[in-house]
Amino acid sequence: MVRHFVGHDRYSGSVAGQTMAHLYGAVRQYVNYFQPSFKLVEKTRHGSRVVKRYSPPATPCDRVMQHDAVSAELKAALSEYRGKLDPVALLHAIREAQSALAAVTFPEIRPTPSGESLEQFLAKLPDLWQQDAAHTSKERRVQPPRTWRTRPDPFEGVWCDVLGWLQEDPDASAVVLLGRLQEAEPDRFSRAHLRTLQRRVQQWRGIMSKELVYAAAGEPMAGLPAMPELALVGADPKC
After folding, report:
1. Which H helix or E strand runs over 30?
2. Would you list the domain boundaries of the chain?
3. How far is CA 229 from CA 28, 110, 118, 226, in A?
4. Residue-wise pLDDT tens digits, 141-171
5. What pLDDT digit, counting tens, does each position of 62-99 carry?
6. Helices 87-105 and 14-34 sit at what angle, rounded to 10 degrees?
7. Which of 15, 17, 168, 236 is geometrically suited to a Cys-Cys bond with 159, CB 3.0 to 4.6 A?
8. CA separation (Å) from 33 to 59, 78, 89, 125?
9. How far is CA 147 from the centre of its chain?
10. Among 93, 129, 131, which Cα is nearest to 111's?
11. pTM score, two decimals?
């Protein structure tokens, strides 16, 4: 529920904290008094089939008022308090707080609070969901490609030998190459390194095939360095 209203960004600072407090205040009232939900009542298993039975949708306030242990005075107080609330005004407050929170965190790419009145908000409400869908699709941040290692290179110091074997026999499989590495260093390499070597050899063959195609056409490879760095495939720079 929290991530649904505030997203997955990280917030810090007193301004963001005050804005989130204002947002939670409006969300608490809206969810507890106006947002119905299902509750699981019973779950029965029949062999491999599970049958679930849910209660009719109701708000948390309705469930409290239907409970026998709640006094009549408290039920009357809840009913009176709910009558003073406006769900549309709460939605407007939630939206303004969300815009303010986004503006505090990402002022360069997120819109600032509009400051529009409740009447203006109601006039835009029928088409508001379409604006949100377009806004979300345009502002999706693209993760940059990872250029760092998360673990040591298992073929550091021997990748030059592997490249030499591939130059001699380009059709050599990763299984054959790993066998030669195991013969040279049986305590270092095992079957667990096969998948990594397969990916590395596949990348090498993809780059070499492009080099052959562009060399036959007499054109330089766009976006790729020239040989011999081309054959390293991000491996040992000492080769």
Report:
1. helix 14-34
2. 2-137, 159-232
3. 59, 42, 62, 6
4. 677 777 777 888 899 889 999 999 998 998 8
5. 999 999 899 999 999 999 999 999 988 888 888 888 88
6. 160
7. 236
8. 6, 9, 13, 21
9. 19
10. 131
11. 0.46
